[in-house]
Amino acid sequence: MADMQPRDGGPILVGRNVLVVEDESIVSLLIEDMLLELGCATVWLAANVAEALKMVAENHPDVAVLDVNLGREAVYPVAEKLDSIDVPFVFATGYGRAGVDSRWLDRPIIQKPYDTDVLAHSLGTLFRR
């Protein structure tokens, strides 16, 4: 759906490159559609920590959306890498704040399921900081 026009309220995301780390393929495709609708230029999808770290090494995302629980592993090694190279990110989890390690509670957290407006607002706050 790369031909979608950006939604109002999301101009801060237009042209941005986004990494999405999500182990559920249907959910990752839904997030990709939302991001493209918001005008993001490129969306890289990773289903596990190893894939995500490889993508970060090969590309430089402007921002990332990180599902906390990736099957049997947690996304925190990706968060640490992104933090070390100053790439902002939001955590996404079905458990809300209770599902995020206390070390990362100062980061934006969105609770699943979420819609395009919630995603746009959360990512937009990262660029306004």
Order of helices and strands: EHEHEEEHEEH
Radius of gyration: 13 Å
Low-confidence stretches: 1-9
| CATH overall fold name | Rossmann fold
CATH architecture: 3-Layer(aba) Sandwich
Number of domains in the coordinates? 1
Strand order of the largest sheet: 2-1-3-6-7
- Estimate the global geometry from the Cα principal axes: globular
Task: Give an overview of the whole structure.
There is one protein chain. The protein has helices at residues 25-37, 49-58, 76-84, 116-128, and strands at 17-21, 42-46, 63-67, 69-70, 73-74, 89-93, 109-111. It has 129 residues and is an alpha/beta fold. The protein has one domain (14-97, 104-128): Response regulator (Rossmann fold, 3-Layer(aba) Sandwich), CATH 3.40.50.2300. The protein is globular and about 35 Å long. Residues 1-9 have low confidence and may be disordered.
List the defining traits of the structure above:
129 residues, alpha/beta, Rossmann fold, five-stranded parallel β-sheet, two-stranded antiparallel sheet, disordered N terminus
Short structural summary:
By secondary structure, this protein is α/β, with parallel strands linked by helices. The protein has helices at about 25-35, 50-60, 75-85, 115-129, and strands spanning about 15-20, 40-45, 65, 70, 75, 90-95, 110.
List the helices and strands and how they pair.
Elements: E1 17-21, H1 25-37, E2 42-46, H2 49-58, E3 63-67, E4 69-70, E5 73-74, H3 76-84, E6 89-93, E7 109-111, H4 116-128
